């Protein structure tokens, strides 16, 4: 009888194992089928160029060329393309945020819920390879153009300057050390650092330097930066500007990204010259869209979700700003979106400003410097973007 029972148990065990193997096989087939379906759908569905919830441009399918491949740009852009264009990406982000909020977490999708209605993005841990490549590219650029006046403003993020607003249990990466090290290295290469941290820490109780719901600095923060940039460039004395509120219910990238609700909306202000008679009109030409305008501020965008695009519209690879100033100096501004709210003020000091965003610009910078008669170069980034992005070094190496 014992042998019969043991035999029955062995048969049951084999049947169970066989059933589990079949289930595993079925699951594997279904998984492969789902992956294949997602891949095919991703090929069919048109790429999206903009994420309204993140308020940023998405990576579209990159152009394939020999220079892109050997320069490393193709691999980087393909990785970004896959991440940005993944099927139902926005829905997955929303679900993740909703779960975090429901669980009562202080952090959702890399954003902390802080005091006084602030939503503060986590500080990026610098990618050492990215930083080293950028420093080498900058050093080589300065060596190639020793007579060009080169400056670099690396804007601190809200998590740095406004750290007193964070929950007491939160500890972020030391952004100040990263900025100090970077400034030390580029200064040794002959590039002048523009450090606004001392001014920002001094003024943060008097003016709102960063939006509560967005990762950008406000127009007040941009104005303080402008007053530091102009003398550092040797471009004369800063002009006096006054701010005007154009929107009172702005909910920016941190609001959309985190899913945190119940906070305080922001006001968007634009800076206008106090002495309108002394201000010179500018003409802005966008090469990618072939459009020309005299307006820095695109007020119609205030009704869009991405209302920050009131400052110059969406991101452009390259455009020019021409102003009939007494000075004949020409500035090459290599930047991220933090610069957008500074450009209208800087325009009063240069006959021409050539604005380049390395994330979307794929042409040769040397040709640009030569053809436009560049006299000054300003790099303007926020630290979080700069320490995580390799587009600057790739652009300068081409």
The value of Rg in angstroms is 26 Å
- Distance from N terminus to C terminus (CA atoms, Å) equals 82 Å
- Spans with pLDDT under 50 lasting ≥5 residues? none
Structure classification: alpha/beta
Q: Strand order of the main beta sheet, please?
A: 7-6-15-13-14-12-10-11
Q: What is the 3D shape?
A: globular
**Beta-strand percentage range:** 15-25%
Average pLDDT for all residues:
85
Helix run count = 14
Task: Give a concise summary.
By secondary structure, the chain is of the alpha/beta class. Helices cover 41% and strands 18% of the residues.
What this model shows, in words?
It is a single chain. The protein has 398 residues and is of the alpha/beta class. Helices cover 41% and strands 18% of the residues. It contains 14 helices and 15 strands. The protein has helices at 2-44, 66-71, 73-84, 89-102, 128-144, 158-161, 175-188, 197-203, 219-233, 253-258, 343-346, 365-372, 383-388, 391-397, and strands spanning 50-51, 56-57, 107-108, 111-113, 119-121, 149-155, 192-194, 241-250, 266-273, 283-286, 291-293, 318-322, 330-335, 352-356, 376-382. The protein has an eight-stranded mixed sheet, with helices on both faces. Strands 3-4-5 form a three-stranded antiparallel sheet. β3 (107-108) and β4 (111-113) form a beta hairpin. α5 (128-144) runs parallel beside α14. The longest helix is centred in the first third of the chain and has 43 residues, at 2-44. The protein is globular. The termini are far apart. The mean pLDDT is 85.
